[in-house]
């Protein structure tokens, strides 16, 4: 078992070992996890289930389609959960970047009407650095209700076709 934040050095390996506390659910080709910063409540990340996969094109076509189906399911779950908890929910933004972390992952960002006017129409990366490291918005027990809503939405979206082979 990992101690402290050791799991952060190998997020996918920790998820595979059941040691990543941010994991919401294992999906077909990925793990749905809550993001570390929650300044936009409901921020999630879809981690590929193989740390050797560094980009979407590394996956064979069928595996790629399963990963993208997982992304669709996570994005819809974020929308359902966030809309249910905050009437100011606007939309979901999805990004696959990979510029800093060299493993396949996708960001699922809920966006809200209460965001500052100068940021609401811009990519989340324009938020000030303090938002990303603010202890007050770091994922923690205060997000248990949101976590439960996300898990419920993911589970409700499960069909027999989504069950891993």
What does this structure look like?
This protein is α+β, with helices and mostly antiparallel strands. The protein has a single domain, classed as HIT family, subunit A. The chain is 32% helix and 18% strand. It contains 5 helices and 5 strands, in the order H-E-E-E-H-E-E-H-H-H. It has a 5-stranded antiparallel beta sheet. A hairpin with a 3-residue loop joins strand 1 and strand 2. The chain is globular and about 40 Å long. It starts with 10 loop residues before the first helix and ends in a 9-residue tail after the last helix. The model has no long low-confidence stretch (mean pLDDT 92).
Summarize the structure.
This protein is of the alpha+beta class and 165 residues long.
The assigned CATH architecture is 2-Layer Sandwich
Radius of gyration: 15 Å
In terms of quaternary structure, the protein is single chain
Total strands: the figure is 5
From the spread of the alpha carbons, the general shape counts as: globular
Q: Report the sheet-strand fraction.
A: 15-25%
Side-by-side strand order of the widest sheet? 1-2-3-5-4
* Overall average residue pLDDT: 92
Structural class, by secondary structure, is alpha+beta
Q: Secondary-structure blueprint of this entry?
A:
Layout (H helix, E strand, L loop, with lengths): L10 H6 L6 E4 L3 E5 L9 E5 L12 H25 L3 E7 L9 E8 L4 H4 L8 H5 L10 H13 L9
Antiparallel strand pairs: 1-2, 2-3, 3-5, 4-5
Helix pairs in contact: 2-5
Keywords:
165 residues, alpha+beta, HIT family, subunit A, five-stranded antiparallel beta sheet, 5 strands
């Amino acid at each position: 078992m990992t101690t402290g934040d050791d799991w952060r050095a190998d997020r996918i390996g920790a998820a595979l070992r059941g040691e990543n506390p941010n994991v919401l659910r294992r999906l077909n080709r990925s793990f749905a996890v809550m993001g570390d910063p929650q300044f936009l409540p409901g921020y999630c990340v879809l981690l590929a289930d193989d740390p050797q996969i560094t980009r979407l094109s590394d996956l064979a076509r069928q595996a790629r389609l399963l990963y993208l189906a997982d992304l669709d399911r996570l994005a819809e779950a974020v929308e359902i959960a966030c809309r249910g908890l905050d009437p100011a929910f606007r939309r979901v933004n999805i990004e696959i970047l990979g510029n800093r972390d060299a493993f396949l992952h996708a960001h699922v960002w809920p966006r809200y009407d209460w965001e500052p006017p100068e940021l609401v129409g811009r990519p989340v990366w324009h938020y000030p650095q303090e938002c990303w490291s603010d202890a007050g918005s770091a994922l923690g027990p205060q997000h248990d209700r949101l976590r439960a809503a996300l898990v419920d939405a993911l589970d409700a979206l499960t069909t027999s076709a989504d069950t891993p082979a």
